[in-house]
Amino acid sequence: MASLEDQYQKALRLYQEDSAHDPESEPYKSKYAAREIFEELKSRLSKQLDEDDVDDAAEDQLVEEGVDGVGLTRARMAAVVYHLGVIAVETEELSTGEEHLKRALIILGDHEGIATGVSSMKVGNEGVLSAALSGDVDSLLSSSSSETVSVSPATISATSVALAISCHNQLGILWSHRNVFSTARRHLDRANVIYEEYQKQNASSPRTIHSLFSACTEGDPDENSGTAALEKLHTLTFYYLAQVFGHLGMPEKSAWYCHSTLQRQLASKDYDPVEWAINAATLSQFYQGKEKFRTARHLLASASKVLSSHEAEFDTQQAESEETASKQERYKRRCADVARCWGRYCLLLMQVSVDRAIPDDPQDEPSQEQEPEEESLDRQLEFVQLEVSDLESEVVSAPVSTFEEMRPLFLCGLRHFTEARQYYSLEDHASDHVSITQDMSQLYKALAFFEPSEDRRSKMHKRRIDLLKILVQELNPQYYLHFKPLPGCRSGEQPEKYSEDSVRPALIAWFHLGRLWSKLVSSSPQSRLQNIAHSLQNYKRVVAYCEKNPDCESVVAQELAICREMVQLLPLKMEQIRAQC
Question: Residue 490 above 90 pLDDT?
């Protein structure tokens, strides 16, 4: 019979390597095969425990001085049950996976961390193990005392800590799959507490899960790899918490955990630079939305720094294989995405500058100074491993108040949007290309606000028109109605129903067309009548659409009231003009 170590390695290869090549018709073939081997291992280990056939030397090796550690055989049992739980979750058997993961935690002594509201339970080792192996987890949860203990010594032993954190991380994933994010958060918080308690109370190097099935003596490479593996598990806990807090409607906490994840990845030097950069750039969008421009700028500068540090690697690679070509394409796309985020940073800062130039109360002067608490937060959110002051110095991080201050922001935004648009071409990425072009148009609009020369302001608006006019000429309204809210068929008639995202832009377009025709100046009565007739026609379109789709009235409530009034007044005005002819 194969040794426990050989069986474990075979199951691990099936699960981790062979499963990636399973046919589409049998997507879980290798994982099911691995599950069978793990079940055999579980039976063998259970027999060893029943017969008390434990290697005392190995047992002593895994018990830290002064800490109630978990013996080797029990630790191996917990690892096998954990793997069975992970396989069950990944093969969409969530209830089975949950049960396995709970059993693993009970074997490790963390029965307090299984269910919400469960207090400390004084259950003997034999009772814990028996209930865990039989699957009778509920019997342990049925009785509890008022005495609450944070984490048992066995759970935070060097033998158990990585496995316990892994179980809670997986339970966090499982409950996220069920969309029960409060329970997912509890398990992830528990994983965090276990890590912190281990750091406080245990000086021994942690064991990896896989090392439980291999010989490991003091001074072996596993001593370092165990610490690295534990740190990576803790980083994963932070990553999962970021997602969970986002789903719980707590964006500030989600952002904090996102940043902490990025910080830990930098510190460990264990990250994909392209993925790290896009995550940092994406996080910057949250902070600039909160008008925390200094933090947003630092994140963007860090993203650019990490990408540029790997630029030479991608430039020198020859696309000799499909995999290499795919990596190069991914790199180029993410560079364009980071450039786009830079452009949006500049645009939003310009728009905020415009808004602050027109305060609600003319007596109030807009403050541009940061509060001490905000400056402290900005410093806390800096990546100390990266030197990005050169990139940060290229653009300001606070609203401006003059054209001279606005122009460098405009040029920076325009440069980055142009770079992004080179990748997102109209031919290959029409939706993205249009969106970027619209943002470029908004750059000119914000800059024009501070331009003192009326002639130059007009030229800026003309440039905006030219940018958008090209899109109108190139786009087919049949496929890009949400970008070009014009009639959806060649006959010129409105569609019967606009999509939810398109209804307001479309109706507002008719409303502004009505206003535009009414403002045209003409000395000829006939031309004036024609202009007013066009104006009336557009106002009627808005009214007719809302009468046919009453649920849309709230979307354009103010504009609709004006349109109804104009539908009544314009015919009278036309009669007055005719009477004067």
Answer: no
